[in-house]
Amino acid sequence: MHDQLAALYPQHLATLRERADKALALGGFDHLLIAAGMPTEKFLDDQDFPFAVNPHFKHWLPLTDAPGSWIIHSPGSKPKLVFLQPRDYWHVVPQAPQGYWVEHFEIVIVRNAAEALAALPAGNRAVIAPGPVEGVEVNNPATVFDYLHWHRSFKTPYELALMREASRIGTRAHRAAGDAFRAGASEFDVHMAYLDAARQIDAELPYASIVGLNEHGAVLHYSRFDRTPPPSSRSLLIDAGASAAGYASDITRTYAAADAGEFQALIDSVDAAQQGFVSMVRAGQSYPDLHIHAHHVLAGVLREHGVIRMNAESAVESGVSSAFFPHGLGHSIGLQVHDVAGFQQGERGGTIARPAGHPYLRMTRTLEPGMVVTIEPGLYFIDMLLAELRDKPVSKDIDWNKVEAFKPYGGIRIEDDVVCTDDAPENLTRDAFAQAS
Residue positions in the annotated binding site for Mn(2+)? Predict the structure, then answer.
């Protein structure tokens, strides 16, 4: 892996420098300064939340634990890393930079924030930072942001290599979580099995894991982690990712107990539908259109399994499909789980609105080669949404006995990370599962 990244990194950096040059020219700036950021203090406490590096910072180099450091890009000059290595016996001091990327940077090691500020160039500066920095005017200029965010959607070969690694880590951990479920583990212990297999702590994961047994699978962002196993473990919905040098994977799987025949059949139908949606991740595909298509297909799944009696078109038009599939089909992913520019109209900004009636869709762009998106259809049996359906005329076209039979299983979500290419899509998640088998 190290040799592969070493070979791919120079072109990645050259691409970022070219993008930065164009962004600075658009905004009329001389320098791009990117702050790694600092840990956020807990309210009324002398402790910090776990450090989360500025995604713009980790885009340039694989450093995710360098608080107080800066990247400086000046067109025509070698990029500079101002690396804060404080004198501190309370905490672990970051090691001096090393690895395949260091030869491509001028590196200045400083001991405190004042020395870091003194190393920053003067002039007309675009300063990207997650919050105020004493002594520096943080402007986060929209012109620069719009250009960089738009082009960040298109992953370099170096970035894709890291995302493949994040998928390999995540799928290894998902296998361990599935084994723990089948052994009768609690939600907490399923989560611990996941962490152990990933070899990452919670703070290192790209997002907080969702681990829901039985009815808890109907809570879209379930986060309780019951410590005691239920009397009967009927189903598990686990939505959990992993990190590789700051790049994310985002994977969801749903498992059923051996005796859950009809629910397992429903999982199989959603899985088949999901793979159909993945096959449509092609250049020129409108993501909102794919989302609407998913609603029609999933409505057909509900009809096939006897949950609804209406046809797919009626289920979508009446909002019935949205009661069972209430979130978006997916989102852009990369340096962040819900990556930037999912709604952006172009490199100069602008917004592409969500389709009417679909307020939770997180991606409205047309797919192009180099984009990586999640495809995560789901079907859920959510009390609040079902109660609203019961009060509508369409209630007569729903088999409520069938709904009640499925409710103890919570819901289904199946999610893969998929690369749009010039040809067939690359499914990072399925490929990683296949390599691990």
Answer: 239, 250, 331, 376, 415
pTM score = 0.96
User: Beta-strand (E) ranges in 117-271?
Assistant: 125-128, 210-213, 235-240, 243-244, 247-248, 251-256
Using a pLDDT cut of 70, give the percent of the chain over it. Answer: 100
Give per-residue burial for 126-137: e unless 16+ CB within 10 Å, then b.
bbbbbeebeebe
Instruction: Could you list the beta-strand ranges (E) of 266-425.
Output: 344-346, 349-351, 372-375, 378-380, 411-413, 416-419
* 125-128/210-213 β-pairing: unpaired
- Residue carrying structure tokens 């992953």: 155
Please, what is the Cα angle at 434 between 334 and 59, to 5 degrees? 15
Residue ranges of the annotated binding site are 239, 250, 331, 376, 415
Q: Give the integer Cα–Cα distance in Å for 140 and 133.
A: 12
Given a cut of 90, whether residue 214 has pLDDT beyond it is: yes
**Pair of tokens at residue 120:** 């920053």
320-335 pLDDT, tens per residue?
999 999 999 999 999 9
Taking alpha carbons only, the member of 147, 123, 146 closest to residue 31 is 123
Residues 6+ apart with CB under 8 A from 410: 212, 213, 214, 215, 216, 217, 218, 219, 235, 237, 380, 381
Q: What is the per-residue pLDDT for 437?
A: 63
β-bridge mates for residue 374, sequence order: 417
Please write the tens of the pLDDT for every residue from 268-323.
999 999 999 999 999 999 999 999 999 999 999 999 999 999 999 999 999 999 99
Which residues are CB-neighbours of 198 under 8 A, at least 6 positions away? 169, 170, 172, 173, 205, 242
